[in-house]
Amino acid sequence: xxxxxxxxxxxxxxxxxxxxxxxxxxxxxxxxxxxxxxxxxxxxxxxxxxxxxxxxxxxxxxxxxxxxxxxxxxxxxxxxxxxxxxxxxxxxxxxxxxxxxxxxxxxxxxxxxxxxxxxxxxxxxxxxxxxxxxxxxxxxxxxxxxxxxxxxxxxxxxxxxxxxxxxxxxxxxxxxxxxxxxxxxxxxxxxxxxxxxxxxxxxxxxxxxxxxxxxxxxxxxxxxxxxxxxxxxxxxxxxxxxxxxxxxxxxxxxxxxxxxxxxxxxxxxxxxxxxxxxxxxxxxxxxxxxxxxxxxxxxxxxx
Length: 303
Description:
Elements: H1 9-21, H2 23-26, E1 39-43, H3 44-54, E2 60-64, H4 78-86, E3 89-92, H5 99-107, E4 112-115, H6 137-154, H7 159-186, E5 191-194, H8 200-205, E6 209-210, H9 214-221, H10 228-239, E7 246-248, H11 255-267, E8 271-273, H12 284-301
Helix pairs in contact: 1-5, 3-6, 3-7, 6-7, 7-12, 10-11
């Protein structure tokens, strides 16, 4: 749940001023060069959803992509910002996850945008919702539907295709959600360890309880080491087989999470990876389906 690192305010302001001044060349796509991409997404996760809806009719560019990318430390480049400013439609996560997108959109209010976080609904106990909404399949479906409507306006000739593609995407998301519900039925309120909140919506939909100490999660969010007491508590849960699986994010590994993985392997507790960007060669639905299938297998073997 650590926030993505953004560039210094002076640096970003300078770039935005420059882009605003050149809006006649890039903002509307009618300048001396073609638009870089009709649709620009902050990450390949949302770029994959957009591509599923666009179906090849319009180009889609993902600014941050690759299994090795770490969204928490990403810094937007001038080229990234120019691509956003030049897009017909921008799809982003929101909720402070990719704040550099919001900064560009604020300087270019005429750009159509889809904010996934805005679709998640209110939080609980006065706290804002978890920002990793790409693990909420209902939000992904809503994003696909909104993209279809926006693209239908941008490209009316293929409006029927965009809406049909979004509906097909929704059916795929529903099938994965059914698998999550099957986990909840087979393992009601089963305990697991998730070292950071990226899997929040996955665990909630699957009816699983994250038993990681609260202090451990706080340390993860603050890029610091967990206390010896929290580390010992997490290790005890593994060594005593009081959890069925360990969920880790390989893109934000630390010495603490590495130690938990080593302990889990030694104790025979299955480890499941939950990433924030797409593994190589996959799309959004394949990624989500594989993650749920791996979690299902881990829970079955960890009983």
